[in-house]
Amino acid sequence: QSTWGQHQTNSWYQYQMRLEIAFVLFFAMLGYAKVNVTALNDLNYENLIKSPAILVKYFAPWCTHCQILAPEYQKLAQLVTDLELDCIIAELDVTENPKAAESADIKGYPTIKLFVNGVAIEYKGDRKANDLLDFINKKVSPPSQELKSVAEVQNIQNQTGKRCIFVQDGINGLETYKKVARMVNEYAFYHAPEEMVKKVFPEIKAPSVILLKDYDQNMVVYKEAPEERKFYNFLETHRFPILAGLEQETVKAVFQKSERKGVLFMHYGYDDKMKELEAEFKKFAEEEQHYNYLFISCNMKQENAKQLMEFLTLNETDFPLIEIVDGQRKGISRFRFADEITAKNLKRFLSEFKKGKIKRFVKSEKEPTENNGPVYKAVATTFEKEVISNQLDVVVKFYASWCGHSAAFAPKFANLSTIFKDVKTLKFVEIESTTNDLGEDQVTSFPTLKLYPAGKKKSPVIFDGEKEVEDIILFLKKHATHSIEPKTKKIDLQH
Predict the structure, then answer these.
(1) Quick one: pLDDT at residue 170?
(2) What is the structure's pLDDT at 480?
(3) Which residues in the chain land under pLDDT 70?
(4) Do residues 294 and 240 touch, judged by C-beta distance below 8 A?
(5) What per-residue string of b and e applies to 195-215 under the rule 16 or more CB within 10 Å gives b?
(6) What is the pLDDT of residue 9?
(7) Smallest Cα–Cα separation from 332: which of 324, 340, 322?
(8) How far apart are the first and last CA of the chain?
(9) For position 426, what pLDDT does the model report?
(10) Can you tell me the distance from the alpha carbon of 395 to that of 224, in angstroms, rounded to the nearest whole number?
(11) Which of 57, 100, 307, 490 is the most exposed place for a label (fewest CB within 10 A)?
């Protein structure tokens, strides 16, 4: 799958998904599926998530990614049983248990959460059995290791990676420290009394937390007893360098998991002028460092930047360029900086963004010069006019020009538009999703078919059946606001 897997797909990947689903169904027929996996429901959910340790997979049966996860999850359940680990492996069908799903606040499928004594930790790693097992082992083990000698403190000082030492003045704050440690995956956690830590770090006073890392300042100190939200945000703030590079983890944080708003300084090449501009950007990043923002310098000339250029539809002449990328809304929203690149101007830009005063940058194809139907072409700048601002029932096909499934569906969609060409209250629209920003209307799989009913445009209905003409007609008859009976009695269902 592409690095930008949330937003793109391809025929080979879809073939792999179908193959994996076939294996899932095969094993299900053999009776192996769901062995050792506890089924949760609206009745038992609240009690079971209070268990000492329980891993819960939230899934929807129709979700392709859920179907692919199924054999790995089954493998995990078997591993946990074989190793006699004290952790329940469970799953919740969100379509059948709306009460439990609502209380879990699930935003996408599949979602995996580990509950340790009722405290939820969302899993955000690769969905493979061994990775999930490592996650469980780390989280059900003691969240923080007690250091019992000065030599052990020195050893932690000399290690690499992100590690924390809670400097104690008794037990005040230790339970909160451990609770946050269970919530965070990227750090190693330790605790030790003040008199011991002072032998290695003489300036330290308890209570405090020493954060050691291999970038920026090698040591940062949280100078009080941990308070849950504040300490968690402190760790998130320092999880990445102040000025990060374009790497797999930063891409995931901004574009796939939407954990941070990305502030991207994009340049093509790295000459002296770019170094000067990057220095201004870094100065700005140092002053504005915050757990909700990730500042990234992107050399778009590098091999790993090609997909980002394609995704943002940029070319060599667009750089240098700075954008805020916000994936925390539905879809990806972009906000473009259009002033001289100085730390002062960038600070003003971010301040205006936080106040909601920066207009979203809309990536859009050129508006068509002719658009006479029966299938109307929409682009980002005309989507409102073609789809939303009318009293018609509007059927929209979201497609990708490179997608084989989109190409296969095209004649069927054209056939539908012909069948209903005399129904003046029904309109057929298509839009290329990968070259147009649609905000909340953005889709991530292709082709996707949505009906925007007259009078209910804010609540479009997604067609999730087989993309056959007859099935789509039944769907339209059920959900359209107006009557859509075609005048012709002879309907061609063959295309």
Answers:
(1) 84
(2) 95
(3) 1-35, 257, 328-331, 486-495
(4) yes
(5) ebbbebbeebebbbbbbbbee
(6) 36
(7) 324
(8) 30
(9) 96
(10) 57
(11) 490
CA-based nearest residue to 110, from 167, 65, 176? 65
Q: Which amino acid is at 428?
A: F
Distance from chain centroid for Cα 351: 25
For residues 139 and 182, the answer to whether their CB atoms sit within 8 Å is yes
Could you tell me if 380 and 438 are in contact, meaning their C-beta atoms sit under 8 angstroms apart? yes
CA distance 469 to 475: 10
- Residues belonging to the chain: 495
Q: What are phi and psi of 366, to 5 degrees?
A: -65, 145
pLDDT in tens, 176-223: 999 999 888 889 999 999 999 999 999 999 999 999 999 999 999 999
In this structure, what are the phi and psi dihedrals at residue 208, rounded to the nearest 5 degrees? -165, 170
- With beta carbons less than 8 A apart as the criterion, state whether 301 and 309 touch: no
CA torsion angle for 387, 391, 392, 397 (degrees, to 10)? 20
> What does DSSP say about strands 219-222 and 208-212: parallel, antiparallel, or unpaired?
antiparallel
Q: What is the residue whose two structure tokens read 């959460």? A: 113
Q: Is 212 left (phi over 0), alpha (psi -120 to 50) or beta?
A: beta
Contacts of residue 379, defined as CB under 8 A and 6 or more positions apart, other chains included, come to 364, 365, 366, 367, 368, 431, 432, 436
CA dihedral over 184, 187, 189, 194, signed as positive or negative: negative
CB atoms within 10 A of CB 422: 11
